[in-house]
Amino acid sequence: MISVSDTDPLLHNETENVHNSGISEANESTSLASHSPNSEEDEAPEGRCARVGWVLRKVTIEPVLLFYIIGWSVQAAITTNMLLEKVCHEQNFNPEVCANLSSHSDAQSTVQEEVSTINMYLELLTNIPAVFFALFLGSWSDKHGRKIPMLLPPCGSLIATLVYLGNAYWFESPSIYILLAAIPRALTGGLITLLLSCFSYMADITKMRSRTMRIAFLDMGFTIGPPIGLLSSDILFSKFGYLGVYGVSAVFFFIAILYTVVRVEDTRGRYSKYNRHSTELAQPPGNMCKDLCDVNNVKDTFRTAMKPRPHKGRTKILLLMVTLCTMIFIFGAMNIDYLYTKWKFGWEYSDYLHYSLTQQLFGIIGTSIILPVFSFRLQVDDTVLAMVGGVFTISSYIIKGLAPTPWVLYLSAVVSCVGGFGMIIVRSLISKQVPDEEQGKVFSMLASWESLIPLISSPVYTIVYNTSISTFPGACYFLSAGCYILAECAFIWLLVNRKPSSVTTTHVPNSET
């Protein structure tokens, strides 16, 4: 695929001037970063209190992702639990069987197969529209700003949560009505759109040297959010049931919306702070809605992502995107985690909650302590860190799939403490391959790929789990380990070919390298 695009006539005219365009775009990117809110021009002041204040001023979009992840973590496992109850009653099992499903293997197998199928359809309905949404939105956000794309996913998730709330209130309603929650999420882009806008925004306001660390702290929403959400979910469910869980989840999405409106200042578009300093990158106002539907946005996205770059830059970008998609594919196993522990160990929701909290706690240690120390302080090569994290991730999945007892499953959580390195570093490496003016387009292309992956992974993991549930239910985790081995091969190639790209080698005054 890469060799064919190297000779694409559409891209031929861009090849001749790629070095000059890289220099000019990098200079524009530096100019933008210097005027963006919370840009990293200034150094940390002396004194503990002054440093704390300085760090707090640097916080921009991190809480948006955190509140969003907490909102979904509060309801994620409890939604599966509600589906188990609904489907069990729909299958006409008596209430005693439904209350002790773990003790009735035949009934549990029947119910779990249907629940996993509903979850699969929920993923498909949510992600199919998001593929097209992401393709248009990346180029649009480069022109009109990141803030509106950042607002859409929490709004859609808030509406989806109200759908779940309705299903809980009218508990006798058919379980298939759960699928209605996919509509608002699909029409607002979901998590993929939020990540696209957040990582593009972060690239706008950070410099090369600190970008991996800043993306790590942004990504901490995925490590801090789930423990908070799961713990809150357990307390709320025991006291207020499903209605309390979904009510609080809706509050977190509303807080994410409110914070974005009040705190986040756009870096691009006619209302950005930068455009008050200079008109160099200002775009004509135009019709924002009309521009969103402009097919040229999609063409521009593909043209930018596929254009030739020095030092195998295009090959690196495409390989990194494929690697990240491989990691996203593994997320398909998350839909069967609760079902797996319930089947193999007879766990109830509270047991699964304790395991999840332990796993997330060690993830926080890896992301917030180990990664910043090795990446920012010790300046260890990003690719090396990703490879080390991959080894631990593969080991974790193998242990999880073979776990004969619960304590061995907990051991897999300890081993996976640095497993989050891979995705953080891959996103950072992608952002370092292109100037800021192209971040939205490249991340848009990546987001569209990411949206496609659940369409494949969810059915694959559902089929594997339903097929192997009676013989070897841990087969899904060996599939995950095999996928991560492919990612490790990509990291080895990147390490061997780690010449800097045009962005990192271009001399830009006052920029970090």
From TrEMBL:
Residue ranges spanning the membrane: these are: 65-84, 118-138, 150-170, 176-203, 215-237, 243-262, 317-340, 352-376, 383-403, 409-430, 442-465, 477-496
- InterPro entries hit by this protein: MFS (IPR011701), MFS_trans_sf (IPR036259)
Coiled-coil stretches are none
One matching Pfam family is MFS_1
Tell where it localizes: Membrane
Q: Where is this region: Disordered?
A: 20-45
Q: Main subcellular localization, coarse class?
A: membrane
What superkingdom heads the lineage? Eukaryota
According to the UniProt entry, which residue ranges have a biased composition of type Polar residues? 20-37
Question: Where is the signal peptide, in residue numbers?
Answer: none
Q: Name one GO cellular component term.
A: membrane
Question: Which named protein is this?
Answer: Proton-coupled folate transporter
